[in-house]
């Protein structure tokens, strides 16, 4: 069974059990713990390109365009010792959208702490910031 398929199945099972009011951070942590346990008891070859990495984060930013958005998000990543692997941003009729793939392998804080810092920064910047580990993002958004 492919890693991505396993993560997807675990995530669906957890969401089904916890219901529509499930806390995203709690689900992410449960899926991570279950996946690590299953992987340790049944090692499979890892394909980081197809499944994504637990050491990379997908960060999506949406809102009305104004100066300082890219700088604000980049500053938080720099302070946390995270590198930007890829970044794409656009403005369409005054609406700002950006996606960043960040390397969190040297992060000075946990994924949950970094996600919370980004969320709070979004409030201060007047935009919505969503962040999720790449492996979970890929598993939850596959077709």
Name the descriptors.
4-stranded antiparallel sheet; Alpha-Beta Plaits; 4 strands; 2 domains; 143 residues; 24% strand; globular; 50% helix; alpha+beta
Furnish the topology, listing elements before pairings.
Elements: H1 3-18, H2 24-41, H3 48-51, E1 56-64, H4 69-79, E2 83-92, E3 95-103, H5 111-125, E4 127-133, H6 134-140
Antiparallel strand pairs: 1-3, 1-4, 2-3
Helix pairs in contact: 1-2, 1-6, 4-5
Count of β-strands: 4
Mean pLDDT: 81
Distance from first to last alpha carbon: 17 Å
CATH superfamily of the largest domain: ACT domain
Major sheet strand order: 2-3-1-4
CATH topology annotation of the largest domain: Alpha-Beta Plaits
Task: Summarize this entry quickly.
This protein has 143 residues and is of the alpha+beta class.
Overview of this structure, please?
The longest helix has 18 residues, at 24-41. Helix 1 crosses helix 2, helix 1 crosses helix 6 and helix 4 (69-79) packs antiparallel against helix 5 (111-125). The protein folds into two domains: 3-51, no CATH class; 56-134, 2-Layer Sandwich (Alpha-Beta Plaits), CATH 3.30.70. A hairpin with a 2-residue loop joins strand 2 and strand 3 (95-103). The model is unreliable at 44-50 (pLDDT under 50). The protein has a four-stranded antiparallel β-sheet with strand order 2-3-1-4. With 143 residues, it is an alpha+beta fold. It contains six helices and four strands; from the N terminus they run αααβαββαβα. Helices cover 50% and strands 24% of the residues. It has helices spanning 3-18, 24-41, 48-51, 69-79, 111-125, 134-140; strands spanning 56-64, 83-92, 95-103, 127-133.
